[in-house]
Amino acid sequence: MQQRNDQVLYSASDIVAFLGCKHRTQLDLRKLSGWDETPTPADDAMALVQAYGDRHEQAYLQTLKHRGLQIVEIDKQAPLEEQIEATRQAMRDGAQVIFQAALLQSPFLGYADFLFKVDGSSKLGHHHYEVADTKLAKSNRAKFMVQLCFYADLLEQEQGVLPRHLHVVLGKLDEADKRKRGLAPQAENTAQLLTGEYIHHFRQIKADFLAFMANPPPTEALPNPACGQCGWRDHCQKQWELQDHVCLVANIRRDQIDKLAKSGFTTMKGLAAYSGEVKGIGVLDKLKIQAQLQSQPLDTNGQRRIHHLAPSQPVAGINKPKGFALLPEPDAGDLYFDMEGFPHETGGLEYLFGVGYAQPPSAPDQGATLKFKPFWAHNRQEEKVAFEAFMDFVEAHLLQHPKAHIYHYAAYEKTAIQKLSSVHDTRTEFRDRLLREGRLVDLYRVVGSGLALAVPSYSIKKVEAYYRGARAGAVANAGESIVMYEAFRKTTDASEQQRLLADIESYNKDDVESTWQLHQWLESLRPAGIPYFSPAAQEPTEQPKTEAKIEREAAEAKAREALALWLAGQPAELQGQAQKVAELLSHLLGFYWRCALPGIWRQYQRQASDESELLDDMECLALLTSTGQVTEDALSKRYFFRVPDQETKLATGSDVTCLSDGMSVANFVYDPDRQEVSFTRKANREAPPQTITVCAAARYNDAPKLAAIHAYIERLSLGQEAGGPLLRLLSQLRPHLTGRASGQTILSESPTPEAVLDAVRQLDGSHLVIQGPPGTGKTTTAAHVIAALIAEGKNVAITANSHAAINHLLAAAYQRTQAAHTPVHAVVVKADDALPPGIKVIKSDDLNPAQHRLAGGTAWLFCRPAQTQEWDYLFIDEASQLSLADALSAGSCARNIVLLGDQMQLPQPTEGTHPSDSGLSVLDYLMQGHATVPAEQGIFLGTTHRMHPDVCKPISEGVYEGRLVSAPACAAQGLVLNATADPALKPQGVVYVPVPHAHRSQSAPEEAQRIKQLFDSLLDQQWTDRTGTTHPITPHDILVVAPYNAQVRELRRALGKQARVGTVDKFQGQEAAVAIVPMTTSDADNLPRNLDFLFSKNRLNVAVSRAKCLALVVASPGLRGMDCGTVEEMGLLSFYARLVNPDDHALSKNNAQHDFV
Question: For the chain, how many structural domains are there in total?
Fold first, then answer.
């Protein structure tokens, strides 16, 4: 920010700084007002990166000059008024490129790197401008988008039209990176994004910033992630130390600081001396001990004080190892491991794997030394090679040292091993062995649960004060290593590159050596009598392979050989496409196993977790106590347990296991209202303990579906699938319809059911996508098509991810056949109450495609060999929720495949990390990121018969690229409000209802109380339907769609059993006059999961689009204008901002596509 005459002007950097820390903005204002404090300058590493950034900008300018473009360069040394006028004149003159454009719309001043001329009407005439910024990074970031939106907002005010696109010219890519991104060798690394996807979030931030500046409120400095790059970081640190601020207590959280402040404790010494309790802080004793140590770090001998935390005590009779009990017996071959990662590469790049092991002393008077071995990687392919080399090294080392373990500090290394093995689909067997045998030992957990230390944080650099001297390397911390590595990626000077990598390697070696020394120090402190840790069942190092494992490996090897044979036989012009299909199929062979791994890993982790920690595990019910009630029948006993207050995903019918004794349970029943669970065990099995924890079972058996994938690969290699729909689908080719040229528009925007039927009839060994947004009649259209196909003598199979979806479509299609008097034997494997009479329930083995011409079942039914190529059509309903692997296993049954669904509604419920596209749903795989199906690739049902236009508009613009419209009759819908109606209620539209609250995560009583007021008021109102008929509003006319199960329970308590309350999973496909959408979480600090869950565009789309007339978004103001880390997260926040700011008309009418020069 800067003072010019009597006005303060703000820059894009000021907005970014405000997002990171409002106290920083307050200090910037003080500095502008004459405060004599000097900010800390950028360090050498950051200055180096900034210098490289300037070079990158100049290099791009030269590239544009070499293209012969007309470029106007604005002189940055000229007076500001002249820069602004020169920019405006260049825009009026229609310059192709304007470099260093100065844009002023008081109180905002921006300097855009480049403005590019594009066609389209504006105040300038028949052209206008789009903005581009140069950035060193190889991938885009959220803060870049905030800056670009800042310039786009200024541009709109200058030219009268919002730029359609934002452009980021990123750092140079090597050939491997370009291949990975699908770029041509000569292509630039430029990100082009739609302004309308991000501008709403920016405008919310801008409004918050202006409100703050108009009346700056008191702010308090508290540590946050933005501190590292803030010029006031040293000033704030001094203030905290002068104040003895409680924020300096190691490992204290923001919510704990706030709760302590409410109880009158703001200093470390005050906390250290306190002897009472503070509501909501269960670890207060540990925080007090920490405060005492930091307040008086040295003992009477001048040594740093150490407090041994009490050994773990059984919780309700259950004992889990903690502290020193987590340390296994030392071994001469123990390994010490540390990694360096670069988070600014898309998906993150693990670029250095450092491992060390002790070597015996070379002489009697010398100590042991550490042998260090680095594994480097500078792109994704090298990452795989380095990871494999590291894992192979460890495996060979364990053969020589069968009792050795791998020690690391904090969870990063273990998590990275799990991720990399899945992403690269490599070394998975050895990874599982490391986890199963407990070979990875996290010393952070040992320190954190065994000791309290007189240090300001428990980073290994701070803990080192106890066992080694100060470091002297060029790299001081992980943040600096990231900056150094970015500098290495940008420089072209070979000697400079060598120097930077040498400094980073030295830093990594230091970390490895420190981990070794920490282990030795901990062993010297081990209290007597504490046993060494040992996993429950450690397998021998060279375990014999089971028969099943040998068969699986042989089958995979055979399948890969078949794929290689097929690939070798493809024409040269199809090799690229065939290579992608072969790689995908190879990855799909491991899909089901990868899906099961997270559950298996969680079981390992739970075995070592405290029962108190498991109370917060959503897949557990912890510390259940026996009621003493046991019922018995001839074969089993049912045991009953009380449930302490906790949140869980478990429900009646869940597949669970008893963590406390490792034994399975059956017929699980959970009654949250009575806070009671029960389950059965065989009568001859041992009774469960009196106190237990149950959790989701980690069982899997997808052998039939996997066998179908193997069978498909075999048929493919034999040339038997060349004309089938699956190969076209896997190749992401456009549908093949008889009599239509490839690339031709299949149908108009809002086709009739008859037109859709004609298109489906024309399928010729191909697939077809029918995308049905909310209320567009997808099921009605599909039922019409299926019934007509049955009448023409075809047989039709219906599959989906759930039996409920299958049965819903099957019932609709069957009823159509009956209305048309078409005879058909309709069958299903699993019945429910929705099935009409006449549909027969059969066993899977009894399915006969010649007799049963209409059948419904999951992929388990249609993947069977007897069904291969026996069906004319396979309809996949809710295709956005069906994995590509399941679609492949079931798809072999049909000659044509119709995919029904909407990738912008609920996604597939899949776990695991999967390489390339193998983890996508079948619909997401085909859509390749498109929010709506392109007209040449499928059919878009573009008219909703549910939503009023004012509800439809933000959904259409924010989710469906403006292609979704309301049927004319929907405009008649609306609430009829009386004089006593709650002020938040409106006749129609999307309305934001703010409810201030703090420290709420998955349950917000304040929102439940406000929703009770809205609910009660609604019951006194009326609503008009699309026919013009007015009805009284009843509980059935109101849906309450919450994000978390805990809030669902809170709302049910508030609203009673009459209310329709649930999560989006329960209400997809349903509708009501009014939808109430509570957000529950207070702010970013209290998000219980990633930001992308709460603000999921898919989830909010489903929730809001349930409404015929009115959608009420009930939320804490703390959710507006949040900071975020990725471009994708900014897009989600922008959609939310669009919903809660319906008057923000950010999209211009200019929808033309432009080429970026």
Answer: 6
State whether 655 and 731 are in the same domain: no
**Is pTM beyond 0.90 here?**
no
Choose the weakest-confidence range: 159-173, 539-553, 735-749: 539-553
Tokens 């919903």 label which residue?
1139
Q: What is the pLDDT of residue 862?
A: 97
For residue 297, tell me if it sits in a domain.
Answer: no
Q: Which residue has the tokens 């897949």?
A: 619
Written as one string, the DSSP assignment of 353-368 is: EEEEEEE--SSTTS--
Residue that is last in its domain, among 696, 712, 743: 696
Task: Give the pLDDT confidence score for residue 1112 in this predicted structure.
Answer: 98
User: Residue 772's closest CA among 785, 788, 761?
Assistant: 785
Backbone angles phi, psi at 74, to 5 degrees: -85, 130
Domain that holds residue 400: 323-445+470-525
Residue 168 — φ and ψ, nearest 5°?
A: -120, 115
pLDDT tens string 285-341: 889 999 999 999 998 888 999 999 876 555 445 567 889 999 999 999 999 999 999
Q: pLDDT tens digits, residue range 262-274?
A: 888 899 999 998 8
Element (H, E) at 341: strand 335-342
| DSSP notation for 504-515 | HHHHHHHHHHHH
Beta carbons within 10 angstroms of residue 1146's beta carbon = 23
Highest mean pLDDT among 19-28, 39-48, 248-257, 589-598: 19-28
- CATH code of 372's domain: 3.30.420
Tell the residue number behind the tokens 């977790």, with chain if given.
Answer: 609
Domain edge (last residue) among 881, 906, 941: 941
- Rounded to 5°, angle at Cα 767 from 761 and 771: 90
Please determine, for residue 1080, whether its predicted confidence score (pLDDT) is greater than 90: yes
Which of 553 and 473 is assigned the larger pLDDT?
553
Compute CA distances 523 → 74, 311, 646, whole Å: 65, 16, 37
Going edge to edge, which strands form the sheet with 190-194? Answer: 71-73, 97-105, 108-122, 125-134, 165-169, 190-194
- In terms of domains, do 749 and 882 share one? yes
From CA 680, how far away is CA 664, in angstroms rounded? 9
Residue 1156: pLDDT over 50: no
- Give helix 591-608 / helix 412-423 axis angle, nearest 10°: 170
How many other CB atoms are there within 10 angstroms of residue 624's CB atom? 27
Query: In terms of domains, do 742 and 787 share one?
Result: yes
Q: Would residue 298 count as lying in a domain?
A: no
The pLDDT assigned to 515 comes to: 97
In the numeric block, which tokens belong to residue 831? 């019945």
Query: CA-CA distance, 1124 to 1132, in Å (whole number)?
Result: 10
The CA distances from residue 278 to 275, 285, 302, 759, 862, in Å, are: 10, 10, 33, 67, 59
Each residue of 521-540: pLDDT tens digit?
Answer: 999 999 998 999 887 543 33
The dihedrals phi and psi of 799, each to the nearest 5 degrees, come to: -135, 165
Residue 736 CB partners (closer than 8 Å, separation 6+)? 728, 742, 763, 764, 765, 766
Contact between residue 971 and residue 1024 where contact means Cβ atoms under 8 Å apart:
no
Same domain? 982 vs 874: no
Nearest Cα neighbor of 809 from 875, 896, 891 is 875
- 8 A C-beta contact, residue 907 and residue 921: yes
Cβ neighbour number for residue 241 with a 10 Å cutoff = 11
Place of tokens 């729909």: 725
Mean of pLDDT values over 505-526: 96
Tell which residue, 780, 1139, 1151, has the closest CA to residue 944.
780
What CATH number should be reported for the domain holding residue 95? 3.90.320
Please check whether residue 731 lies inside any domain of the structure.
yes
Please report whether residue 1064 resides in a domain: yes
Residue 177: the pLDDT is 52
Beta bridge partners of 763: 737
